[in-house]
Design goal:
4-stranded antiparallel sheet; 4 helices; Protein Transport Mog1p, Chain A; 7-stranded antiparallel sheet; alpha+beta; single chain
Length: 169
């Protein structure tokens, strides 16, 4: 466990956030998550994600207000395809969820792993939702993070750390 934001030391409105290193069950991906994140219970998974293509990994915080999902697609993806992949998802989300304002598409690179991402503001639900796409082991991976809009200061600050912590094992 390590502290990435310390409210007392930084004298800010930002809450303290302690993180731990999480590793995917298939041992291909590592990232840092806030302390207290755990796998969502089966009943809640079925209730909150009733789709036929439910994400393989669904994690949530202790208060059950913040969810992080990971989907590993069998679609080949090279590092240089990241910008095009996130753009395709962005266009798809604009088409299916036109009611939600979206941020521009961003591209970050950390330790050689490019990550394309954007935000959706789900005003009617009081939530913000980030979608991030990146290659792991030459395959497309989709990460989503959904959190209460009223906690956006905390989670927007953490998003940068989360994306920078993505590592291929």
């Amino acid at each position: 466990m390590k502290t990435i934001y310390d409210r007392e030391a930084q004298r800010s409105e930002q809450e303290s956030i302690c993180v731990f290193t999480w590793e995917s069950p298939d041992k291909q991906l590592m990232l840092e998550l806030p302390e207290g994140f755990h796998e969502m219970e089966k009943e809640r998974r079925e209730e909150n994600y009733p789709l036929f293509e439910r994400p393989e990994i669904i994690l949530e915080d202790e208060e059950e207000k913040v969810q992080l999902t990971l989907q590993f697609f069998d679609k080949p993806m090279k590092k240089e395809d990241t910008k095009e992949a996130v753009w395709q998802i962005y266009v798809l989300m604009k088409e299916f969820f036109m009611q939600y304002p979206k941020s521009p598409v961003y591209l970050n690179e950390n330790d050689g792993i490019p990550v394309g991402w954007f935000m959706m503001h789900m005003n009617n639900m009081g939530k913000e939702h980030m979608k991030a796409v990146f290659p792991i082991k030459g395959k497309m991976t989709l990460l989503t993070l959904t959190y209460p809009e009223k906690e956006s200061v905390k989670w927007r600050a953490f998003t940068g750390h989360l994306l920078a912590s993505i590592q291929e094992v």
